[in-house]
Design a protein that fits this description.
The protein has about 160 residues and is an alpha+beta fold. About 20% of the residues lie in helices and about 25% in strands. It has a 6-stranded antiparallel sheet with strand order 4-3-8-5-6-7, with no helix packed on it. Strands 1-2 form a two-stranded antiparallel ribbon. Strand 3 and strand 4 form a beta hairpin.
C-alpha cells in the first residue's frame, strides 16, 4: 500500500491536468471496481462487497495539486510565473522546481534582500515579483525548452 501511495504522491497533477494521476488510479482499480469518469474528469468508482452492508464507506481525495504556470520568458532566460491554485508566494522563494514538458530542474528566486527597499522588505512578496531560473543563457535559449503556458511543479521527495 505504501508503494502505491509513494507512486501517487510523486506524480504531477496540476489542477486541470491530472491525466497522469487519473491514469495511474484507473490502472490500479480497473480489475477490482466499476468506475466512470465524469465531465469534470473525476473518477467515480464503486466496489461491491460480498454482502449488502449496514453502512457504506466513501473515500474521497483530490487528484490535483497546486503549481505555477509560465507567463513569460525574460531576456535573461528567467521565467515569470503565476499560480495554479492557492500558492503563497513567500513559500516559493528558494524552492527547487521542475519546469515544463522537458522536466528541467530550476529554482524559484526573488530580488536579493540587499536590493530590496525598506518598504519591499516589510511586505509579503507577490507572485509577479518572483522568477524561475533553470539555467538558460538568454530568452532564445529558454525558448528551446519552455513556452508560456508550461507548468512548473514543485520538486519534492516522498517521506514516510
Amino acid at each position: 500500500m505504501f508503494e502505491n501511495l509513494k507512486e501517487l504522491c510523486l506524480l504531477n497533477g496540476t489542477s486541470g491536468n491530472e491525466d497522469a494521476v487519473r491514469e495511474y488510479i484507473i490502472n490500479e482499480i480497473k480489475d477490482y471496481a466499476e468506475y466512470h469518469i465524469d465531465n469534470l474528469g473525476n473518477i467515480i468508482a464503486f466496489k461491491k462487497g460480498k454482502k449488502v452492508p449496514q453502512k457504506k464507506i466513501m473515500l474521497d481525495a483530490h487528484m490535483d495539486e497546486v503549481a505555477l504556470i509560465v507567463t513569460s520568458i525574460q531576456s535573461d532566460g528567467t521565467l515569470t510565473v503565476d499560480t495554479v491554485g492557492g500558492v503563497d508566494a513567500s513559500v516559493v522563494i528558494g524552492r527547487q522546481v521542475i519546469v515544463g514538458r522537458e522536466k528541467l530542474v530550476g529554482v524559484a528566486g526573488a530580488k536579493a534582500i540587499h536590493k530590496l527597499s525598506k518598504d519591499e522588505r516589510e511586505k509579503k512578496p507577490e507572485i509577479d515579483s518572483l522568477y524561475i531560473d533553470f539555467g538558460a543563457e538568454n530568452a532564445d535559449d529558454a525558448k528551446k525548452y519552455v513556452m508560456p503556458g508550461d507548468i512548473v511543479y514543485f520538486s519534492s521527495d516522498y517521506i514516510e
